[in-house]
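so my prof wants the structure for this chain in the tokens format not the other one, which i didnt know existed until like an hour ago. anyway here's the sequence
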Amino acid sequence: MKYQEEIHSCQELMEYIQQVGFLPLLDSGIAGYSAEAVVDDDCRYVVFADGGWDWPLWKWKGPIIQEGICVYGKFFASKAGFISREWWPDFCNYRRSKHPRPTEGSIEEAILLTLQEHGSLITRELRAACGFTGSKMRSRFDAFVTRLQMACRIVTEDFVYPLDKHNNEYGWGWALLTTPEQLLGRNHCKCPHTPEESYQRLHAHFHSIVPEATDKQIAKLLG
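here's what i got, hopefully its the right format
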């Protein structure tokens, strides 16, 4: 692992993502390999005596995505993380070979077509537009969206926060979803390598950044 001094700022984290290429947000199953593990204690989740909370790392996600230096979504065993633009074509190439485009008439296709029609939508807007409005439909819909993220068909464009009466943002925020083609352009979702070549490149790269990881752990992250 390319360990370094603890990260104290959003800018430092952006630079680190560029160095390693892939970085899960929270626990990856590999000791020390996550954004949460490399940031300073002051940047992690803390609850105050009055019940309030602060989590600088969580708040950095949106600004990092907006910089355009990486892609963010649930890519690693259905958990969220960052992938640099440099490595996205190979990762997308391999993942899409494992998860072909949704079949015609499927729920996954309907979700993608709705998202393509609107450009981007927060999760609850996308859910409503796709007709998942009944009771207990939220978790079912979220599972479809997670699978589409794992297939590199949906990514997060930004995070949208509600405003209080003083016009201040609050809460955990809502993911603003889009397609990688919309976010990066179609050309950046193309790759000159075969899926197998992409896998070999990815596997070798993961071994270089987390040499202590087992083949099983790397295979789980690569999906």
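also thought this was worth mentioning. The two ends are 20 Å apart (CA to CA).
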